[in-house]
Amino acid sequence: MRLALVYDCLYPFTVGGAERWLRRLALELAAEHEVTYVTRRQWAEAEDPLPGVRCVAVSPGGKLHREDGSRRLSPPLRFGLGVFGHFASRRGEYDAVHCLSYPYASLLGVRAALLGTGTRIVCEWLECLSDEYWRSYGPLEGRVGRALERLCVRLTPEAVVFSRLSADRLRARGLRCEPTLLGGLAEQPAAAAEPPGGAPVVVFAGRHVEDKGVLALPPALALARESKPELTAVLAGDGPQRTELEALVHELGLGASVETPGFVAADELERLYGRAMCVVAPSRRDGFGMVVAEASARGVPVVTCGEPDNAAAERVVEGENGALARSRAPHELSAAILRVLDGGHELRRRTAAWYAANAESLALEGSLERTRALYAEGQAPAARGRL
Hints:
single chain; alpha/beta; Rossmann fold; 2 domains; globular
C-alpha cells in the first residue's frame, strides 16, 4: 500500500509527543508499505531525515511559535497550501493518507486536493478543544479557530483518537463516523524505577509554555515545603516562560531546592524518573497524557489537574497512581503533591501495579499494532475495532 503521513513537524527537528509518535509510526509502517512523510523543510539538503521513508517538504521551515509560545498563523497556512499542491498534482498516487487534524489547514488541503478520488483519508485527532479554551484566544482568533475545528470535524471521513475525551467531543460536534481508539503513546521502560533514597524529589518535564503550567509549580512547591522542607524539585524543559520561571524560583527563595536544567536528553530524563518520588504535569491542555503514562510505567506517581482540556486526567486514579488537583491554584497543587509524597513507597508499588494492569491501553506498541491493522491490506473499515 502507498501511504502518506501528513504533519508539519518531524522529530527530532521539532520535539514533542506527536512528533515522536509520527516518526515511530512512519518507520513501523515502512516495514510493510511504501511510506511518504509530507511535512515542512526541517533538514539539510543532503540529509536523509527518516531512513526508509520518503520525506517531502511542501513548505519552508522556520519558527512555528511566537515569543509567548502560541502558534504563528503564516506557517500552517503555507503548509496547507503546500499540502494541497502536493496531493492535487498526485491524485491517484496514494492509496491512503494519514493526516493530523492540527494544523487544520493541512486537513483542508488534503480533502480539497483528493475530492472525488476515493483515496482513503484517516484523520488523527490528538485533541478536540473546548469552547472555553477557544475563548481564551480572544474574540476573533478564538471564533475563527473554533469554526475551523468544527469544519474539520465535519470533513473527517475516518477518525482515530488517543483519549475518550477527544472521542466524546468529536461525536458531540457532528463527526460522521465512529472514532477508533488507538491506545497509548508511552515508551516502555527496561524496568520500573527503584524507589529513590534521600530527600523527596518532584519532577516536571515539558515545554515552558502556558498550556503546560510550569509557572504554577514554584508557588505550589513553596507551599509544600512548609510541610516538607526537605522537598526538592527539577523543572526540566525550555520555552518562552523559562526566564520568568527562573525569576519566580529566585523570588520565592527556592534557588537551593529547585533546579531548572533546560531540555534534557532521554537518558537524563530516565535518571530523573529514577530520582523522582512524584512527577507533576499541571497541563490545562493535553491530548493523551504521555508524561502520566511514562511515569506510571516506571512506578512513579503523578499529579495532574482536572482541567477541561486535559486528557491526562483520564489516566490518574486518586490513590492508585497519583493524585488529581482540582485546578492549577498553588494550594490545590501543593495539597496533591503532599498526598502523593505521604503515600510513599506503597503508592509507588500501587502505581507500578496500575500500569501493569493498564499497559495494553497505555503503551506505544499497542497503538502501533492497531494502526498497522488499520492499514492491513484487504481489511474493510467495518472490520476494525471501535470505541
